[in-house]
Specification:
The structure holds three protein chains of three kinds.
Chain A lengths: L2 E4 L29 H8 L6 H12 L10 H5 L2 H4 L9 E3 L4 E3 L1 H13 L9 H12 L15 H12 L9 H5 L6 E2 L2 E2 L10 E3 L4 E3 L1 H11 L10 H13 L10 E2 L1
Chain B lengths: L3 E4 L3 E2 L4 E8 L21 E8 L2 E8 L8 E7 L4 E9 L4 E10 L1
Parallel strand pairs in B: 2-8
Antiparallel strand pairs in B: 1-3, 3-6, 4-5, 4-7, 7-8
Chain C lengths: L5 H17 L14 H12 L4 E3 L2 E4 L3 E2 L5 E7 L9 E8 L6 E7 L7 E6 L5 E9 L4 E10 L4 E3 L3
Classes of the chains: A mainly alpha, B mainly beta, C alpha+beta.
Amino acid sequence: MKIIGCIAILTAIAGTALAADIPQSERRSGTSFMSPDTRAMQDEDTANPGMLWVLDGEALWRRKAGVADKACADCHTDARVSMKGVAAHYPAFEKAFGKPVDLEQRINLCRTNHQQATPLAYESHELLALAAYVARQSRGMPIETGDDPEIAPFVEQGRELFMQRQGQLNLGCANCHDDNWDKKLAGSAITQAHPTGYPLYRLEWQSLGSLQRRLRACITGIRAQPYDYGSPELVALELYLMSRARGMAIETPAVRP
Amino acid sequence: MPSALINVPARAKRGDVIEIKTLMSHIMETGYRHIASGEVVPRDIITSFTCRYNGTEIFRADLYPAIAANPFITFFTTVTESGKFEFEWIGDRGFSETASASILVE
Amino acid sequence: MTDSDHTTRRTFLGLAGGAAASGLVPIVTVRTADATPAMLSSAIRNIVGEANVRTGKVKLDIPPLVENGNTVPMTVSVDSPMTADNYVKSIHVFNEKNPQPNIGNFYLRPGAGRAQVSTRIRLADSQKVTAIARLSDDTFWSVTADVVVTLAACTEEAI
């Protein structure tokens, strides 16, 4: 993935002192920063291109896979019931590993352990479709990620990564998303980094994409080396961001510019 | 098989003007992009969309690379009788997909 | 609709350095070769022939400032009774600066009841978008809108 452009004004805000976290009462979803046109695209299922992935995910949910010749539906039956609220808890602590896993990793653990199938690649159509279908079942429900005490050290790790300056522009996530969320970068609103709608359809991507893809793009944007897909750093960042969005409603599949 | 989303009201009154919304899964590769080594990514788009209402063509569109990925097209029609709307998307590399939706006209 | 090569990267890094020094906000747009006004008028002539194109009757709803040029919602509607002897035959949408001037052609029947189509389009740069309607009496009517396209703050190439 190659960066073709990023706005240099990032450097101008590099000197700003770090402010405190965004107060609860001022928290906003990325939706509230969007134009009415983009919001309309998200709000209506037939207009929302992310629903194409949800539709494919529904078909995959019922398709048998792997040596075990089992479909997701064979164990979890009706996703509309069994997956309701599930995505609102991810990333979640995985006892077997002693660390958190995100929703995509959870789907792949199910594939390898129970379906005895090969894991799906990050950003593959199938993995995005399944993640979108599962997360869609939690639409409108409040995010509850991060309430598990075992996960607390990983939330803190994610927070530190969020604050940490890095890359050629020497910026941390917080320099934009905590300190300057009410401003703009060129024509684009700087949002508060509440990942309420992943996987989401980004107009820039003309596709659905995961929160890890978004994070990697942001990290490349500050001219730092992005962490690998599935790395503990990206999961920790996902975990911190989801836990700071706790209480906000899941919007999957959201639409963003 | 690529997915499509169609929005046609399930029922309507005779003479009603209804809006039909269609969303088709397709990359709409323009043919104007290059990969890092400089090679052009070949064009791969939907070139034609047609809607028939009980067999009669009521709407047709020619699409160009300037139509965004996952083409979204909406239009209107007056409903006269119960029946079926059939949708067809045709494009490069032999792309050909159909979908249909029924309406009950009272 | 954007392009990437080493020149672009160097140009950009240069701009980034410049902005750090001056504090200015550069808006960087990167694009392939444009269509030309001659290509646009030729594309329009292909549709209307020698007919006179008048301004009016057509309405083009498109955001004046778009959040991302890759997906721009657009609605064209035409003031027409849509009766058997007075209706809109077709709607044609063109742009000024994409690599090619055509966006879409939409063919309607009097039974449409309402002469209105919506779709989502790509705009490689800030430019004019023109919609032309052909009525059942073979007259042509048009409207043109200016759209400002800003590049997203941080973009990545899909491939």
